[in-house]
Design a protein that fits this description.
Elements lengths: L1 H25 L3 E12 L5 H5 L6 E14 L4 E12 L3 E14 L5 E13 L1 H5 L8 H4 L4 E15 L2 E10 L4 E10 L1
Antiparallel strand pairs: 1-2, 1-8, 2-3, 3-4, 4-5, 5-6, 6-7, 7-8
């Protein structure tokens, strides 16, 4: 799992560094790097009936993101974003990449749609409603990382060089993922 998070973070950094240099030289691209937190509900139907009342299919997530947006007209932009989060309860971690297409208002507020791919490393013990010491997926050799396409929408509101953001996403229309964050724009 850690190798996937490291690989994702490295890929996002590799995309962001040249874009940041481009943004400073040409004044066109905008790079935002920030922290985010949220809630991810995996949407497992009937989990409590199967695993008991202690089972959980959701959790809080905490992490960061890097977004690069390039104007394609005076008010429209296209971009890319990478994210990585650590979680609580049923979510050990999630990370992914997405493309963004949106509208930028004259005051700098961005409203966008996004689509990409998101991986989620679930905590099998929390899903099963059992103690993590008795059921350790690493000791059992179980791969608990699943991935599928992500579809979502969001808004970034500028406040000086800072951007306040909110996103709502779904992974394969099975889950609901809400995040909010603060980013620094370059």
């Amino acid at each position: 799992m850690k190798k996937y998070v490291f690989a994702s973070a490295t890929a996002v950094a590799a995309l962001a560094i040249p874009s940041a240099a481009f943004a400073q030289d040409e004044g066109q691209a905008e790079v935002t790097v920030g922290a985010s937190a949220g809630y991810h509900d995996l949407g497992v139907e009937g989990l409590e009936d199967i695993a008991g009342p202690d089972a959980s299919d959701s959790g809080a997530i905490f992490g960061g993101f890097v977004a690069v947006d390039v104007p394609i007209s005076s008010n429209f932009f296209i971009g890319a974003e990478g994210n990585a989060h650590f979680g609580t309860d049923a979510i050990d971690a999630d990370y992914g990449v997405s493309g963004r297409l949106g509208f930028r208002a004259d005051n700098g507020t961005k409203v966008y749609l996004r689509g990409g791919y998101q991986w989620v490393d679930v905590d099998a013990a929390a899903l099963a409603g059992v103690d993590g010491d008795t059921f350790d997926e690493d000791d059992l050799g179980i791969d608990t990382t699943v991935g599928d396409y992500l579809v979502g929408a969001g808004v970034d509101v500028p406040v000086g060089q800072i951007s306040i953001r909110g996103n709502i996403d779904t992974i394969a229309f099975d889950s609901v993922r809400l995040t909010a964050g603060v980013g620094f724009r370059f």
